[in-house]
Design goal:
The protein is mainly alpha-helical. It has five domains: 168 residues, no CATH class; 171 residues, Rossmann fold; 89 residues, no CATH class; 84 residues; 177 residues, no CATH class. It contains 35 helices and nine strands. It has a five-stranded parallel sheet, sandwiched between helices. A two-stranded antiparallel sheet has the order 3-4. Strands 5-6 form a two-stranded antiparallel sheet. A hairpin with a 2-residue loop joins β3 and β4. α12 packs parallel to α22. It starts with a helix and ends in a 31-residue tail after the last helix. The C terminus is likely disordered.
Length: 912
């Protein structure tokens, strides 16, 4: 029970509403109804069968105990104590004899029909049945433990969760109980939270069917076009994404794209692009020298001492080896050299015609193979495949000579005959230390990290000191022990160690390979970067004069040559040629090439975007290259109606188009559920309605729900939604007021600006004492333009009177209508989300058809961006489906109870 209450999903719901705490849950779960319901949810046939078998075993044991004339407990205890006494004091042999004697006695008594045998037999049967009953009790305990685990997971835990939700009353999912900040909402562009959608599947399908071409990605701002392009570039074999400039200059844009293309290709090939530093040549040289000196000093601090120690230790065996084999090696080299000299002399004198022809042909073949790569490749393969086994063979052979050394074998036999016990003890100690050292090395080399709070401790830092200590102890044991010391003192051991070291070094040398030649495309990219990012200048000077320095006249001639930066046509030609070569190379490797141009829709009007497409049209259409361009919806609309009736840049620049539509309610549920565990369906519905399905706004509202909860100091969606909607409405009204300030106003109609200012200030930070009045004024403003107002409105109260638009121009009237429509939409959200019973009212609204679908709220928010009048008509249909009034009734969304105003303590809240 307590474990079910401590579950995170259940514990976070306790003490949120009145009457929902641990005590209340425990009282309900203690009743017969809930206990029976919990056990019914988790049947256990195995436990029931075990209980039944236990009852049967107990009945059999009790029946056998009643039949026995003797007390079976006393009889079996005496037999057991006797067996133990014989085993302890007499041993197994005496016990065996006693058992045989008892068996003979029992057979004799049974043959004679003695009652003692019958009574003893009944006692043994009762004891056996008692042992079976005990075993069955253990089985019942095991089944009970397994059933308890199942009851916890399948019975108690879900029943407690359902009970807590039942005690919470209506709309338990509307409670917003924030947890720690979730990274999915704090980092909108985090790669681990990308959700598959229709637009991405369509774009991937078009990329797989088209060999090359230009595809436009259009949609409203914030719908996820940039994320879609980034995912396609990341998934492609080779891709570059570049941002379109706000004030476009095609030459600068193409220059930036060319630089990114070259740098991306060089990095993909493993070459770092050249960095053009702004430091003087002297400072660059000093910095390079300083870095080289630092690396050399660190390398020398290890290399020089190590070399000195190795040379000192190997000098004697190497010197003896040299004295032993140097004469024979010198004779062999001298013989081989004389033979080669004699052959060359013979060929030079013309005595061997066949050898002369062979040498001549070999020289011609060698010259013609100067551009072929087969010879270096063969030599490299022979080196890499041959040097490693030779080195390992040399190391193993050097180590194996220990087993063939007769002197060491005699020393081992002598130790075995004279000090066998000490020798075996030494071997045991050495083996144990060797195993410990090897295990510690394996643990040290593992990359496992142990979490310790905020820190992660690697096993390397833990096991490195013990591994070093175990190695030192092993070395000291081998040196100080008399038995191993005599074996290590063999005069051939230094030579064997030299052979092992030489073999290991030879095997390591197999990993070396010459640096590959820089590919041609990398060289072209490097040269292109130099051309684009530097100005190369050369100066040549010449001084002439006579032989006599005093009497001669001197002249100095100098010439300066500076490269001309590439113009736009030349830059286009170089870019297309370079991109074509890269695409051919990547396509042969089975990869696709994608160039993504983002943020074209931020250029301004659609005419500016179309002009930009016309200018960069020259770089489009490269074979085997896919271009992805994000454009605004109006540019996409121009492509869709191509040829009706005029042609524009989209007809010839774009091959296809993908529309990134706002998210549906199902998509919003998937997106927010993946990014947050605390946002439930009512919160997702609110965020989806406020954002209109725009992905960027959807994530912003998901994060803003937590901020609003902290401001409202309430877990109820009714309070959180009211604060959030009014805050958004205040910011929107402030924007409308800024736009209205640019219009011409008179004394008669300037009260509109004052009304906007009052509503914006009170909606942003509403005071409890005037909240009801503000909401009432807002209610009337939302129905502004719908005909005469009800008679209940006080005409003398200026705060309730709609704005006077009798003397307004068309632009100002349009802005007021748009503000009124947005207020109408906001009040609709207030009526829906700020009233209790959201789940029940959602089901009732769904019965009215499509207008009652919660998706229509997001449709209305999108329609506000098109027309205030069509949006108002759609909102009317939504209000009908939700059974909301179509006229001013401010009491519907005014809080039921208003608290005392903390700012004006002497003034009670309105409406009280």
């Amino acid at each position: 029970m307590l474990a079910a209450l401590n579950a995170p999903e259940t514990e976070r719901l306790l003490d949120v509403r009145d009457g929902v705490d641990r005590g209340a849950v425990l009282r309900h779960m203690g009743t017969v109804r809930y206990r029976r319901y919990t056990t019914i949810r988790c049947p256990s046939p195995a436990f029931d069968r075990a209980i039944e078998a236990l009852d049967q075993a107990r009945e059999k044991h009790e029946r056998a105990a009643r039949v026995a004339q003797w007390d079976w407990r006393v009889a079996c205890s005496l037999i057991l104590f006797g067996v133990l006494a014989l085993l302890i004091f007499g041993g197994p042999f005496v016990l065996l004899l006693a058992v045989l004697a008892a068996a003979v006695t029992m057979v004799t008594l049974s043959w004679r029909g003695s009652s003692a045998w019958t009574d003893l037999r009944q006692c043994l049967i009762a004891a056996g049945l008692g042992a079976g009953w005990l075993v069955q009790r253990v089985e019942v305990g095991a089944c009970a433990a397994r059933w308890g685990e199942d009851l916890q997971e399948e019975g108690t835990k879900p029943v407690v969760a359902d009970l807590v939700r039942h005690l919470l009353g209506d709309d338990p999912d509307s409670l917003f109980i924030p947890d720690d900040y979730e990274w999915g909402l704090r980092a909108p562009r985090a790669p681990g939270y990308i959700v598959e959608n229709v637009a991405r599947r369509q774009l991937e399908g078009k990329l797989s069917h088209l060999e090359d071409g230009t595809i436009a990605v259009c949609g409203p701002r914030g719908a996820g076009k940039t994320t879609l392009l980034e995912q396609c570039v990341e998934k492609a074999g080779f891709g570059v994404i570049v941002q379109a400039p706000a004030t476009y200059a095609p030459h600068d844009f193409l220059l930036s794209l060319s630089v990114q293309l070259c740098e991306k290709y060089m990095r993909s090939q493993g070459y770092e692009p050249t960095s053009f530093a702004r430091l003087s040549p002297a400072r660059r040289l000093l910095r390079r020298v300083r870095l080289r000196a630092k690396r050399l000093s660190r390398w020398s601090s290890f290399a020089v001492p190590a070399a000195v120690l190795v040379v000192l230790g190997m000098s004697a065996p190497v010197h003896s080896l040299y004295e032993q084999y140097a004469p024979s090696v010198a004779d062999a080299v001298r013989t081989f050299t004389n033979a080669i000299r004699d052959d060359m002399t013979t060929i030079w004198q013309g005595h061997t015609v066949i050898a002369s022809l062979t040498v001549t042909i070999a020289g011609i073949v060698w010259w013609r193979s100067r551009h072929a790569a087969w010879l270096p490749r063969i030599l490299g393969r022979l080196w890499m495949r041959g040097i490693r086994p030779i080195g390992l063979l040399l190391a193993c052979a050097s180590a194996a000579t220990v087993l063939l050394d007769e002197q060491i074998r005699q020393q081992v036999r002598h130790l075995h005959n004279t000090q066998a016990e000490a020798l075996y003890k030494t071997i045991a100690y050495v083996g144990m230390l060797l195993v410990v050292w090897w295990a510690l090395r394996l643990a040290r080399d593992s990359e496992v990290e142990l979490p310790l709070g905020r820190w992660h401790i690697s096993l390397d830092s833990i096991f490195r000191p013990p591994a070093a200590l175990a190695g030192i102890c092993l070395l000291l044991l081998l040196i100080d022990n008399p038995q191993t010391r005599s074996l290590l003192a063999d005069p051939d051991n230094p030579l064997r160690l030299a052979g092992v070291i030489a073999g290991v070094l030879m095997s390591k040398a197999g990993d070396w390979h010459p640096q590959e030649e820089e590919p041609e495309l990398v060289t072209r990219c490097q040269n292109h970067l130099y051309r684009l990012q530097t100005i190369q200048q050369a100066t040549h000077g010449l001084t002439t004069g006579g032989t006599a320095q005093i009497m001669s006249l001197g002249t100095n001639h100098s010439a300066s040559v500076s490269t001309v930066p590439p113009n736009y046509p030349e830059l286009v030609a170089e870019f297309r040629d370079l991109l074509r070569r890269i695409a051919i190379e990547k396509t042969e490797a089975g990869k696709t090439v994608v160039i993504a141009i983002d943020e074209v829709d931020r250029l301004g009007a659609d005419s500016d975007a179309l002009a930009f497409l016309r200018e960069i049209k020259a770089i489009l259409g490269v074979p085997l290259v896919h271009y992805l361009i994000s454009v605004a919806e109006d540019v996409g609309a121009a492509f869709v109606r191509r040829g009706l009736p005029h042609r524009d840049a989209t007809d010839s620049s774009l091959d296809d188009i993908i529309h990134v539509q706002p998210s549906t309610l199902s998509d919003s549920r998937t997106i927010l559920a993946k990014r947050s565990q605390t946002l439930k369906d009512p919160h997702i519905l609110l965020a989806h309605a406020l954002s209109g399905g725009i992905l960027r706004d959807l994530l912003r509202y998901g994060l803003q729900l937590r901020e609003t909860q902290e401001k409202a100091q309430s877990y109820e969606l009714t309070d959180i939604s009211r604060h959030l909607i009014l805050e958004e409405l205040a910011e929107t009204f402030a924007g409308f007021r800024t736009l209205l300030s640019k219009q011409q106003w008179t004394r008669d109609n300037s009260s509109i600006l004052a009304s906007f200012r009052t509503l914006s200030s009170y909606l942003r930070d509403p005071c409890p004492c005037v909240e009801a009045d503000v909401l009432r004024t807002l209610d009337h403003f939302a129905f502004y333009g719908d005909g005469p107002q009800p008679d209940s409105v006080n005409a003398d109260d200026s705060s309730h009177r709609p704005p006077d638009d009798s003397d307004l121009n068309n632009d100002a009237r349009q802005l007021i209508d748009e503000a009124s429509a947005y207020a109408y939409f906001s009040l609709t959200l207030l009526d829906i989300f700020s009233t209790e019973g959201l789940e029940r009212r959602t089901q009732l609204a769904a019965e009215h058809g499509q207008d009652g679908d919660p998706e229509r709220l997001a449709d209305a928010r999108q329609e506000l961006g098109i027309s205030a009048y069509s949006a108002r008509s759609l909102i009317d249909n939504i209000r009908k489906a939700w059974s909301l009034p179509l006229g001013p009734t401010p009491s519907s969304h005014i809080p039921a109870s208003a608290a005392e105003c903390s700012r004006h303590e002497s003034r009670p809240a309105s409406g009280r």
